[in-house]
Amino acid sequence: MNRDLTVGKPETVLWKFCLPLFGSVIFQQLYNIADSLVAGKFIGENALAAVGNSYEITLIFIAFAFGCNMGCSVVVSQLFGAKKYRRLKTAVTTAWIFSGVICVVLMLAGISGCVPLLHLIRTPEEVFEDSVLYLDVYVWGLPFVFFYNISTGIFSAMGDSKTPFYFLAISSVANIAVDILFVKAFHMGVGGVAWATFLCQGVSCVLAVLTVRGRLKKIPAGEKAAIFDWGILMKITAIAVPSILQQSFISVGNIMIQGVINGFGPAVMAGYSAAVKLNNLVITSFTTLGNGISNYGAQNMGAGEMSRIRSGFRAGLKLVWLLSLPLCLLYFFAGSAVLRLFMEEPTKTAMDTGVWYLKILSPFYFVVSAKLVADGLLRGAGLMRQFMAATFADLILRVVLAMVLSKTPLGATGIWCAWPVGWTVAAGLSLGFYRSGPWRKL
C-alpha cells in the first residue's frame, strides 16, 4: 500500500515506515549469513573462507544495484511527494531500462574478470576453486539482484515498506532450507550454497517486478506515460552514479583490506568472514534505515516541508540508537557464542580473530549509525558531493590504516582498529553537512 510521508506526525510516520525496512534487511542479510553458516557448519572452515572471500567481490556488483536503487528511489519519491504521477511512471520504466543495460555490462565483466581479481587479492590455493564456483553462479544471477533492488526502491519511494518485507521473509527462510537441502542431501558443496541463493533470489525478483507493475497500473496518471525520458534519466544518474561510485570504492577498499587479511592465512580469513557478516548485518541495517530516511526526506523536499525533515532527523537518530544498544551489547559480551553459529570446531586463531573484530567495532555502532542517518537526508536532498566527501574520508582512512597497522606487532588486530577511526571522522563530516543543509533554520 502506497503511503504519503508528507503528512502525519514525523516520528510516527518515519518509524512505521522504517521498521519494516529494518525487518527486510534482516531477511536480506539472511541470504549471505545462511551461505556462510551452512558452508562453515556443514562443509568446513575452508568453505567458510571461500564464501567470505567471494563476498567481498560480490559487493562490487551489489554497489551498482544499490546505486540504481537509490537513483530511482529518490527521483520517484520526489515525484510522488509532488503528486506528478505520469512522470513517476516514466521514471520507473526509465530506471528499469538504465539498470538492465548496466546489469548486462557487469555480467560480461564478471564472467571475464572474477578469476584475475581472486588472484589479485592473493586468494589461498585451498579456497580458490570454491571461490571461483561461488562467483560464477552469482554473476549469472545478477539480473535478479538488479531488478529486485529497483523494485524495492520503488515500493519504498511510494511509502510502502511492508511489501518488500513480505517477499524477503518468505524467500530468505526458503533460502536457508534450500541451502541445507543442496549441501546435506545433494552434497553439492559451495556450489549448492550458491545455487540455492540464485533460485530464491530469482523467485523474489519475479514476484516483486510483477507486483510493481500491478501497483503502477492503479495509479491515475491522465494521459499515457512515456516509457523513457532522457531528462529523468539524467536526474536518476545524478543520484545513482555518485551512489555507485561511493559503494564501488567502498567495495574496492574492502577488497584491498581482504587482500591484507588473506596474507594471514585461512584461519584468520574464516574468523573474519564470520565476524564481518555479523558486522555487515548491522551496517546494512543502518544503511537501509538511512535509505528509508532518504525516501522520507525526498518526499518532504518535493512537498517543500523542510521542518518535517528536521523532525525526521531527530526521529531517525533515536531509532538507530535504540537498535545500536542491544547489538553492541550482544557482539561485545557474547561475540564468541554468536560466532560459533558459523563455525564447527573452529581453530583458536579463527575464533580469536572474530571475537576481537566484534569487540573493537561494536561500541562505535552509535557513531556510524548517526552518520548514516545524516547521509540518508543528504541523499534525499540530492546533496551528493557532501555525501561522497564523508564516505571517501571513511574509506581512505580505513584502507590506509589497515595496511599500516597490519605490519605492526598488532598484526591482524591492527586492521580492525582502522574501522572506528574512519567511522568517527566521517560521522563528524556528515553531521556537519546535515547542519548546513537547506532545511536549517535561518
Structure commentary:
The two termini are 37 Å apart. With 442 residues, the protein is an all-alpha fold. The chain is built from 15 helices and no strands. It has helices spanning 10-43, 45-81, 85-120, 125-140, 142-157, 162-185, 189-217, 230-262, 266-303, 306-339, 348-361, 365-380, 384-405, 412-416, 418-435.
Q: Return residue spans where pLDDT drops below 50 for at least 5 consecutive residues.
A: none
- Radius of gyration using CA atoms only: 21 Å
Q: What would the principal axes of the Cα set say about the shape?
A: globular
How many beta strands in the DSSP annotation?
Answer: 0
Helix segment tally = 15
List keywords for this structure.
442 residues; 84% helix; globular; 0% strand; mainly alpha; 15 helices
Summarize this structure briefly:
The protein has 442 residues and is mainly α. It has helices spanning 10-43, 45-81, 85-120, 125-140, 142-157, 162-185, 189-217, 230-262, 266-303, 306-339, 348-361, 365-380, 384-405, 412-416, 418-435.
Helix and strand layout, with pairings?
Elements: H1 10-43, H2 45-81, H3 85-120, H4 125-140, H5 142-157, H6 162-185, H7 189-217, H8 230-262, H9 266-303, H10 306-339, H11 348-361, H12 365-380, H13 384-405, H14 412-416, H15 418-435
Helix pairs in contact: 1-2, 1-6, 1-7, 1-9, 1-10, 2-3, 2-4, 2-5, 2-8, 2-9, 3-4, 3-5, 3-8, 4-7, 5-7, 6-7, 8-13, 9-10, 9-11, 9-12, 10-11, 10-12, 12-15, 13-15
